Amino acid sequence: MGSTSQMGAALWLQSRQAHGIFGHMPPDILIGTASWSDPEFVRDWYPKGLPARERLRFYAEQFQMVELNSSFYGIPDLRQVDQWIHVTP
């Protein structure tokens, strides 16, 4: 069995392929942040009053990527990965 990060990447790839939305990675530099829910980032960057359930969608409209370190703590459930996919472009 592979490392946690390899398994997390495999889950991400599997989910993207299952939804037919996986393409090749562009050779561009991608800009993002380490979290879409860090308390200071939420306080200082998101529009005031934006509901927590809308933060990832708003974030994805501004940035091309986000560092997802949840696999450090545990492999995300496939349903959670599907949810992330459905709220991002």
Short recap of the structure:
With 89 residues, the protein is mainly alpha-helical. The chain is 49% helix and 4% strand.
Structure description:
With 89 residues, this protein is mainly α. The protein has one domain. 49% of the residues lie in helices and 4% in strands. It has a two-stranded parallel ribbon with strand order 1-2. Helix 1 packs across helix 5. The radius of gyration is 14 Å and the shape is globular. It starts with a helix and ends with a helix. The relative contact order is 0.21.
Which structural traits does this protein have?
mainly alpha; single chain; 89 residues; 49% helix
Indicate the topology.
Layout: H1 4-18, E1 32-33, H2 39-45, H3 55-62, E2 65-66, H4 70-73, H5 78-87
Helix pairs in contact: 1-5
Number of domains: 1
Low-pLDDT residue spans:
none
Give the helix proportion (percent range).
Answer: 40-55%
Oligomerization status of the protein chains = single chain
Strand content: under 5%
Q: Whole-Å distance between the termini?
A: 31 Å
- Order of strands, main sheet, comes to 1-2
**Alpha carbon gyration radius:** 14 Å
For the largest beta-sheet, the strand count, sense and barrel status come to: 2 strands, parallel
| Strand count | 2
Mass-distribution shape: globular
What is the overall number of helices? 5
Q: Pairing-aware structural class of the strands and helices?
A: mainly alpha
Q: Tell me the series of helices and strands, N- to C-terminal.
A: HEHHEHH
